[in-house]
């Protein structure tokens, strides 16, 4: 009896099963992850690790997040089909693409022009037409398009992200890593509709810091 070939499809299926066992149980989120070809977002050097549950390096000293963290953060947003989402930190565009399969519109801000350009090519290749991109300072959010139903931050804020919380609808949800050290807390802020937030700590995470301004690239 021969073993089943270890193809991309079997690796992907194994990853999805692993995410479910770790607590990513929303079927819509799992479906979005399964439908998003992570190999399109991973640098050629790491293609053999595409379906591992691990973060991988990309250009500009950034990373493509671990699939479990992408799933956990997406699930924590409790997205609805008509949600308008602000994402801070486009990066490779992988998290953006997952959000775009679950929300009405995704507004995404990136401080590295190189990363933004590459991500836009991937969105076009996947025919994801509900993503609006912006090259700029993610720490400032996108006030012209606020308020948002949901906000997702993919870099670690040093403290409570007050500017971004001010751009959230009263009953909205913001998910962000918060902390200054190498290990941060993944926080969920859920608006009560009256100007206050229920704050919940989800788990420890490791993200690059949320930096102000746009990057100078050589």
Mean pLDDT across every amino acid position: 94
**Corresponding CATH architecture:** 3-Layer(aba) Sandwich
Total strands: the figure is 9
Q: What's the CATH first level?
A: Alpha Beta
What features would you describe in this structure?
- With 218 residues, the chain is α/β, with parallel strands linked by helices.
- The protein has one domain: Rossmann fold.
- 27% of the residues lie in helices and 25% in strands.
- The chain contains six helices and nine strands; from the N terminus they run H-H-E-E-H-E-H-E-H-E-E-H-E-E-E.
- A seven-stranded mixed beta sheet has the order 5-4-3-6-7-8-9, covered by helices on one side. The protein has a two-stranded antiparallel sheet with strand order 1-2.
- Strand 4, helix 5 and strand 5 form a beta-alpha-beta unit.
- It is globular, with a radius of gyration of 17 Å.
- The model has no long low-confidence stretch (mean pLDDT 94).
Could you name the key traits of this structure?
218 residues, alpha/beta, 6 helices, 25% strand
Summarize the structure.
With 218 residues, the chain is an alpha/beta fold. It has six helices and nine strands; from the N terminus they run ααββαβαβαββαβββ. The protein has one domain: Vaccinia Virus protein VP39 (Rossmann fold, 3-Layer(aba) Sandwich), CATH 3.40.50.150.
């Amino acid at each position: 009896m021969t073993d089943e070939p270890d193809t991309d499809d079997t690796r992907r299926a194994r990853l999805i099963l692993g995410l479910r066992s770790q607590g990513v149980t929303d079927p819509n989120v799992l479906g979005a992850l399964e439908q998003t070809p992570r190999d399109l977002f991973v640098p050629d050097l790491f293609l053999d690790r595409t379906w591992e549950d691990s973060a991988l390096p990309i250009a500009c000293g950034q990373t493509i997040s671990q699939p479990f963290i992408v799933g956990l953060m997406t699930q924590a947003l409790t997205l609805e089909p008509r949600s308008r989402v602000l994402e801070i930190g486009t990066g490779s565009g992988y998290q953006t693409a997952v959000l775009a399969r679950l929300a009405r519109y995704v507004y995404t801000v990136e401080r590295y022009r190189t990363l933004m350009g590459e991500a836009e090519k991937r969105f076009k290749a996947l025919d994801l037409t509900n993503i609006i991109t912006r090259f700029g300072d993610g720490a400032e959010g996108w006030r012209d398009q606020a308020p948002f139903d949901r906000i997702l931050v993919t870099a670690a804020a040093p403290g409570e992200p007050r500017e971004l919380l001010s751009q959230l609808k009263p009953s909205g949800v913001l998910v962000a890593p918060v902390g200054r050290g190498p290990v941060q807390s993944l926080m969920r802020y859920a608006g009560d509709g009256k100007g206050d937030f229920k704050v919940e700590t989800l788990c420890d995470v490791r993200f690059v810091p949320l930096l102000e301004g746009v990057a100078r690239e050589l």
